[in-house]
Inverse folding.
């Protein structure tokens, strides 16, 4: 069968609460996923594990299979920002806790610099504006800035913002030194978790650079590629499914849900992977 668009499975190994840049509380997010019929859910906030207790508690009440997760921000080869999802982590592992505190510690200062850069481009009030959208100021980021730019009427939606601002080469982009790939994967592995390369299609790497990234990811102990992502077309999903096969990685999938009004894919769902894949979700499904 040839598919022209994604079909979806009731599994979600990547989503965000308002402890990072999502808009729903962990409990509301889990309730929504359960109402959507999810079988397996992981909350993966950016550089933050503070929502996991609330999410797990709600999942237990609703009898939903829940995994502790995280999405760690990484600077690969110094200047390429990538994201590593960690699944089934032990959130009490001290090096992970200390590592993510250090990784996120410059976010407020980064926001000040974004404020300064955007004011040079004629956009004012970014510092306060972004913080007004951030439930957790420690995790303030580009999504909160983007919501402010939508709020003041500059753009129709968040995705449009990232076509013109906040990305490398555009106004408002501020380079930042996140964790290294080796650090992020060692924290995840040390916490007993599975390291997943999040949305590889988002990085727009040349084939040669993607190959180097996958080699580094494998050498550091990475396990799976997130081929099933709302960021990927069907072609891109198949492209990364094939990469996973040739590199010996498992395959993961998630919604990367942030908000009921911003995302095409609902929390609790992810693009259906081909049945020939070795899916990371099989580790936890009955
Ligand atoms: P930060 O961690 O502050 O660099 O922000 C990264 C976040 O910005 C991502 O997790 C997304 O929530 C959001 N983001 C980045 N690029 C895009 C995009 N093209 N469209 C929508 N949201 C994006
Ligand atoms: Mn995000
Ligand atoms: Mn991401
Ligand atoms: Mn994400």
């Amino acid at each position: 069968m040839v598919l022209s668009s994604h079909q979806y499975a009731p599994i979600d190994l990547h989503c965000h609460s308002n402890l990072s840049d999502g808009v729903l509380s962990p409990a509301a997010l889990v309730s929504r996923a359960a109402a959507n019929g999810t079988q397996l859910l992981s909350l993966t906030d950016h550089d933050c594990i503070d929502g996991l207790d609330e999410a797990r508690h709600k999942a237990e009440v609703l009898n939903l299979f829940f995994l502790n997760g995280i999405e760690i921000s990484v600077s690969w080869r110094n200047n390429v920002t990538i994201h590593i999802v960690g699944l089934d982590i032990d959130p009490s592992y001290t090096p992970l806790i200390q590592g993510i505190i250090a990784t996120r510690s410059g976010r407020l200062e980064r926001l000040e610099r974004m404020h300064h850069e955007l004011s040079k481009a004629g956009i004012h009030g970014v510092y306060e504006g972004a913080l007004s959208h951030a439930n957790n100021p420690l995790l303030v980021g580009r999504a909160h800035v983007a919501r402010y730019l939508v709020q003041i009427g500059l753009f129709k939606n968040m995705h449009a913002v990232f076509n013109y601002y906040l990305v490398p080469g555009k106004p408002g982009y501020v380079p930042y030194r996140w964790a290294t790939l080796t650090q992020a994967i060692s924290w995840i592995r040390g916490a007993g978790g599975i390291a997943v390369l999040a949305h590889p299609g988002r990085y727009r790497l040349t084939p040669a650079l993607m190959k180097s990234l996958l080699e580094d990811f494998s050498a550091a102990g990475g396990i799976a590629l997130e081929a099933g992502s709302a960021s990927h077309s069907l072609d891109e999903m198949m492209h990364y499914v094939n990469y996973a096969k040739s590199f010996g990685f498992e395959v993961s999938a998630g919604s990367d849900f942030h908000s009921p009004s911003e995302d095409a894919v609902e929390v609790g769902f992810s693009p259906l992977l081909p049945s020939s894949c070795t899916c990371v979700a099989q580790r936890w499904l009955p």
